[in-house]
Design brief:
This is Bestrophin homolog. With 475 residues, this protein is an all-alpha fold. Among the domains are: 20-76; 103-232, no CATH class. It has 17 helices and two strands. The chain has helices spanning 28-53, 56-72, 78-98, 104-113, 119-143, 145-150, 154-159, 165-173, 183-197, 204-211, 217-232, 237-257, 278-297, 310-327, 382-407, 415-430, 439-443; strands spanning 446-447, 452-453.
């Protein structure tokens, strides 16, 4: 049975996972304790041999070998190899679970699409659903050891009621070297076409919904096919071998490299002699446990503690699907007004354990409580917005004007007077004189030094504040 602990971790609390560490079924202790005991026994055997059985020359050689192994053991990329492999296996494990064929959608379509309250209509609905269940049973029997142990032969399938004897004869009369889990799906389509001819299926759209849609036989058969291909195409054996060899070789090297050497000899990193390698044992527990997780999840159709409950799924799916298409066909409760019929603002009641929810404010959005200063709430005229958008271009023109004025200075000795004249000209430009037909206005825009016309309506003209022009005392 799959180990379920969801209710125990529904709420996060202090040391919430600590209670789970005491569980045995489905735990890492149950998976790893044998390998852990073997590793610890080998380590202690090598330690006793080094301390009491080797000669002095042999001890020196063993110490050099231990230092060498400890130095080069870090070259094995354990975290990368194991992490990528386990991620691949976990994704594959969950996708296999999503590929298990479930009849819930199909039984609803059959119950609503195949008409008739008489014995013929009941027979058609039950037979269609039984064919779908038979196809799922055949594929699960092909990939799951637990299901195969329950139905080891076709006689068991017939005796269980999933297949009649005549159907078994037809099933075995078709000679094919491939898995024939798809045959009940073909029977399903032929029977659906017959029901359409008899008028039990009222139109072609309902027949298409029953066969081709994502709620009909097409998806159900596709899930059966995916399970078959997951069973046939495994994770590449090369990758599994690489990960296994990496883990085992790393800890074989650690059996020698992590030995405690004589502290009196002064080897670097061997100042203590603790006899028991605590952190090496923890490292074995984590890395080897990681490999055990991948070993358990790579094929979830076995009899491990956390493998899928395929036999339970067969029982549940068969019973529910038959009840939906037979006993519940046309079974509709009396339609009546609900208790909130005259209430424009219905609100279901709360128990004393959940009444605190009413005290919480309703979420309106992340910006609902945001405040904006009052002066920033006023809409701005479009003319001012357009003028502000032109300021970068005008500022560039003023910078070019300043560069020309500074480059026209006659000598370093006259920088002071040039600065005075430049400031006066920029002040005149800041007044933005208008250019019209008046010649005096045109002469006011004439720069005597640069011999160019600078006008507020021309290409080169802009008000530059004096604060934008700063010179140091040395300049």
């Amino acid at each position: 049975m799959t180990v379920t602990y969801t209710a125990r971790v529904a709420n996060a609390r202090f040391c919430g996972f600590s209670k789970l560490l005491l569980a045995w079924k489905g735990s890492i202790y149950k998976l790893l304790y044998k390998e852990f005991m073997v590793f610890f026994a080998l380590y202690m055997a090598i330690s006793v041999t080094y301390r009491f059985l080797l000669l002095e020359d042999q001890k020196r050689y063993f110490e050099k070998l231990a230092i060498y192994c400890n130095h080069y053991a870090s070259l094995i990329p354990m975290s990368f190899v194991l992490g990528f492999y386990v991620t691949l296996v976990v994704n594959r494990w969950w996708n296999q679970y999503k590929s298990i064929p479930l009849p819930d959608r199909l039984m609803c379509v059959i119950s609503g699409g195949v008409q008739g309250s008489d014995e013929r209509g009941r027979l058609l609905r039950r037979t269609l659903m039984r064919y779908a269940s038979l196809s799922a049973l055949l594929i699960l029997r092909s990939v799951s050891t637990a299901v195969f142990r329950r139905f080891p032969t076709m006689d068991h399938v017939v005796e269980a009621g999933f297949m009649t004897r005549d159907e078994r004869k037809k099933f075995e009369s078709l000679q094919s070297r491939y898995n024939k889990y798809w045959m009940p799906c073909v029977w399903f389509t032929n029977l659906a076409a017959l029901a359409r001819c008899e008028g039990r299926i009222k139109d072609d759209n309902t027949l298409k919904l029953l066969l081709e849609s994502g709620q009909g036989l097409n998806e159900f058969r596709g899930n059966c096919s995916m399970l078959f291909h997951y069973d046939m195409v495994s994770v590449p054996l090369v990758y599994t071998q690489v990960v296994t060899i990496a883990v085992y070789s790393f800890f074989l090297v650690c059996l020698i490299g992590r030995q405690f050497l004589d502290p009196t000899l002064g080897y670097p990193g061997h100042d203590l002699d603790l006899y028991i390698p605590i952190f090496t044992l923890l490292q074995f527990f984590f890395y080897a446990g990681w490999l055990k997780v991948a070993e358990q999840l790579i094929n979830p159709f076995g009899v491990d503690d956390d493998d899928f409950e395929t036999n339970w799924l067969i029982d549940r799916n068969f019973q529910v699907s038959m009840m939906a298409v037979d006993e519940m066909y046309g079974d509709l409760p009396v339609i009546e007004k609900d208790r909130y019929w005259n209430d424009s603002n219905p609100r279901p009641p709360y128990t004393a354990a959940t009444v605190f929810v009413l005290r919480k404010p309703s979420f309106q959005g992340s910006t609902f409580d945001m405040t904006v200063p009052k002066e920033e709430m006023q809409f701005q005229p479009l003319e001012d917005i357009a003028e502000n958008l032109e300021e970068p271009h005008n500022a560039h023109n003023s910078t070019a004007l300043l560069n020309r004025l500074l480059s026209a200075a006659p000598s370093p000795a006259s920088l002071g007077s040039a600065f005075t004249r430049t400031t006066a000209r920029l002040q005149r430009l800041g007044r933005r004189p208008s250019c019209d037909s008046d010649s005096s206005s045109l002469n006011s825009c004439l720069c005597p030094d640069t011999q160019s016309t600078l006008c507020s309506c021309g290409a080169v003209s802009q008000h530059v504040p004096l604060s934008a022009i700063q010179f140091s005392a040395g300049e």
